[in-house]
Amino acid sequence: MDDATKTMKTVSKALRNSPLSHVKIDGISVLDRSKKTRIEPAFFHMLLSSLNSLRWFGCSLAGKKDEQITAIGNAVLDIKGNEIDIRLSESTIDGARSMAQAISLDNKFDVRVSTFGTSSGILIHAEKVNNKSLGRKH
Q1: Which of 25, 47, 78, 85 has the smallest set of CB atoms within 10 Å of its CB?
Q2: How far apart are CA 83 and CA 69, in angstroms?
């Protein structure tokens, strides 16, 4: 477990055939032991890109720097499915906008951000554009 990259690859491989479709991770710390660096975005990326059935992901952006929020948004680009709902807790609307901007930057995803009357409940819905266009052809 001292090599973060090797550990992430091992966990990723173990999760590939998992039927998990909903994952909520709030308030966790993921550290590269040898560097003592926080690597939560890398952990989130591993989950998002490994779980083939993932359709809903909940996380907190509390205490995350702008570049970490962008990295988590970029991780969504590697989801296996065609769409995902991301529920942000303990997050600001600015953090949600940063994440949504990272997801929609390459125009592969249609992104909607919704609030539930408070900034503590923010939902980002991301759907692959090619999936939407296929669904509209009848």
Answers
A1: 78
A2: 19
Interacting residues of 116 by C-beta distance below 8 A, sequence separation 6+: 122, 123
Q: Which CATH architecture has domain 4-136?
A: 3-Layer(aba) Sandwich (3.40)
Return the number of other C-beta atoms located less than 10 Å from residue 53's C-beta: 12
Residue pair 126/82 in contact (Cβ under 8 Å)? The answer is: no
Q: Where are the domains of the chain?
A: 4-136
Query: What pLDDT digit, counting tens, does each position of 19-72 carry?
Result: 999 999 887 888 887 767 888 888 999 999 999 999 999 998 888 889 999 999
Give how far the C-alpha of residue 78 lies from the chain's centroid of Cα atoms, to the nearest Å: 9
